[in-house]
Write a structure and sequence with these properties.
118 residues, mainly beta, seven-stranded mixed beta sheet, single chain, globular
């Protein structure tokens, strides 16, 4: 199971850190990704981190502003969001999948709302 938390309301230029707590299985061989969905838009890939190696990948829209990290001891993945923009407003989700499989085949957590005011 995955549980995303840490969302809220922040002014443009501000920061938030989201957490994704992973439980119920060993995620040593899993990738964990962050996605977001704004009202009226399709779900968008934000970034991902490999659980077994320190490899991260980000979408162009957040590269340089967002950072994904993990705490293996706490089975938690973080999404540090800096220099937030109003267009970052969305429900943010975390998901986990086995490397090589598709995200649709993975496990998804409930989303957490992020609202960035101008």
């Amino acid at each position: 199971q995955l549980q995303a938390s840490g969302g809220g309301l922040v002014q443009a230029g501000g920061s938030l850190r989201l957490s994704c707590a992973v439980s119920g299985r060993t995620f040593r061989s899993y990738d964990v990704g962050w996605f977001r969905q704004a009202p009226g838009k399709e779900r968008e890939f934000v970034g991902r981190i490999s659980w077994s190696v320190p490899f991260t990948y980000y979408s162009n829209s957040v590269k340089g502003r967002f950072t994904i990290s993990r705490d293996n001891a706490k089975n938690t993945v973080y999404l540090q969001m800096n220099s937030l923009k109003p267009e970052d407003t969305a429900v943010y989700y975390c998901a986990a999948k086995i490397g090589g499989s598709s995200w649709s085949e993975g496990s998804w957590g409930q989303g957490t709302q992020v609202t960035v005011s101008s």
